[in-house]
Amino acid sequence: MKTILKQRMSLQDAHYGGELVDGAKIMGLFGDAATELLIMNDGDEGLFRSYDQVDFLAPVYAGDFVEVHAEIISAGNTSRKMTFECYKVIETRKDISPSSADVLKQKILVASATGTCIVQKHLQRKA
Predict the structure, then answer these.
(1) How far apart (Å, rounded) are the C-alpha atoms in residues 95 and 101?
(2) Is domain 2-123 classified as CATH 2.40.128.50?
(3) What is the pTM (predicted TM-score) of this model?
(4) Rounded CA gap, 43 and 56, in Å?
(5) Residue ranges per domain, the chain?
């Protein structure tokens, strides 16, 4: 089971100088994607248990658009192992003007992760 979320990073998402978005925002998007997958798979939001690995690979700035890809790669009795990838798909071009941006010809992988979520057996409504 897979899902894709798209979102524009705003000035409120910027945490560091130069309007750099912090990794916690990307992790929040991974959590949102996990929640969507669990609802689609089990009919319940479940709980995020742990991340096994997280890598931040490229910067994201306010005004950039990102796309999060998430997939359940294995399912146990109550556990759901997932992979996450976040790509930058539109990039701001403040060197041209404050409102300029480019759709990227090739999306940029900015973060990836693997993690495990839990849906208690009595809350699973889909099989």
Answers:
(1) 10
(2) no
(3) 0.92
(4) 31
(5) 2-123
